[in-house]
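pinned: reference chain
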Amino acid sequence: MVDALEIGYAIKDRRAELGMTQAQLAEAAGVSKRCLWSLELGQNPGVQLDKLTAVLGALGLELTVGNPSDEPQAEQLDIGGPAARDDASAGALSILTGGAR
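pinned: its structure tokens
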């Protein structure tokens, strides 16, 4: 299963890739700088889903939840550990770049 720290790394890496500051991303996503800061550090595991999806959307990323697929629709950032992929009963959680990476 993906944890808050892995999601935080994906957010921070994509923000850096786009050359955005935390302040710029927070404004674009409509969240506070503190919320974004805590997301990037993985210190906000109870973040509201609408805030998380707003941040991901501002980065051109998408959060999907479902069963692993043999045919991904977009290039995926590898944020899941092997245990999440090996457990057939576990759903997959991926952050998709929409082919941007």
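why pinned: Helices lie at 4-17, 22-29, 33-40, 49-58, 82-86. Strands lie at 62-66, 76-77, 92-96.
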